[in-house]
Amino acid sequence: MTPTIVFDTYWRFAAERLAMYYRRLADPVGRCTDDPILSGFRFTNTYRAADRVSQYLISEVQAGADRSQDPREVFFRTILFKIFNRIETWEALEQRLGPLTWTNLNAAALDQTLENLRRRGNSIYSAAYIMPSPSYGRERKHSNHIALLLQMMKDLVPERIKQAPSLRTVYELVLSYPGIGPFLAFQYTIDLNYSSILDFDETDMVVAGPGALDGISKCFSDTGRATAEDVVHWMTDRQETEFARLGLHFDGLYGRRLQPIDCQNLFCEISKYARVAHPDIPGVANRTRIKQIYRPNNRPLPFPQFPARWGLRVQSAHLGPQKVSYHEPLQPSLI
Q1: Smallest Cα–Cα separation from 161: which of 279, 72, 265, 37?
Q2: Measuring CA to CA, which residue among 298, 328, 58, 311 is closest to residue 196?
Q3: What is the DSSP letter of 62?
Q4: What are the residue boundaries of the structural domains of the chain, listed by start?
Q5: Helix (H, G, I), strand (E, B) or coil at 94
Q6: In terms of pTM, does the model score above 0.85?
């Protein structure tokens, strides 16, 4: 494979974006970065599980206080939350309907509440993923998604994934449902694997989405015969070597190294970052602008919570690793 100048930027971005996360935990009102691009635009965390929505899913939806860990309940809550992938939608539903459970579900009330939110001008879906409407014959997209979830529950999907022998088996089962393409099925699979009902190694598989494909095309002028998934796994395997080569301090997420899902996400983010840092490298998408502007807030981040089986020692919401220092800003002139 033939790397471009963006290849090194990928690793610098990963190190600086994680350092920003720790700085924000330590001091919500302090300076997070000297990098003008990172301070001006929105980028997800280096680790997917540390992002705001993933943290809410893990700590509030899946493992929150008084949340049943019955596989059917965990599956129902996870997929319902991820269909909309929007904290505000989940909280509005629970404010109107009470705690969302499969046992006490009133599907008609759920549908009507979503319709009421939509009519009041609220965005009920996140813009993070493209969410096509599954073909269940309903007029509204959210009604079709409720029908999809009801069908999955009727088909005993929670019980089937609980017995699945591999992460790929879970993925293929989720993928078999209408309106769920390969990338979305993989994202749902990783979300389910955060919960108590699954315990698979995240290195087992990865699916590269459209953003990652663009990021790969910017990091490499030629990938030979390697598939996009091969490239993601190669990056996962080489991370320690590349951080050391560039003199970057990277202890990972409380000691956890980058997983394929994280390297896939980083390709998506470098696709955006390079639009400003390396405008002369168009990539396959040929997009030139970053749409989402970063608007800082001074609210402290919630205490980080990750799957217990990862064994991460998160002792304080305000303390990251001991060695956290400012990196040079990733301005194009320095890359």
Answers
A1: 72
A2: 58
A3: I
A4: 2-51+206-330, 64-195
A5: helix
A6: yes
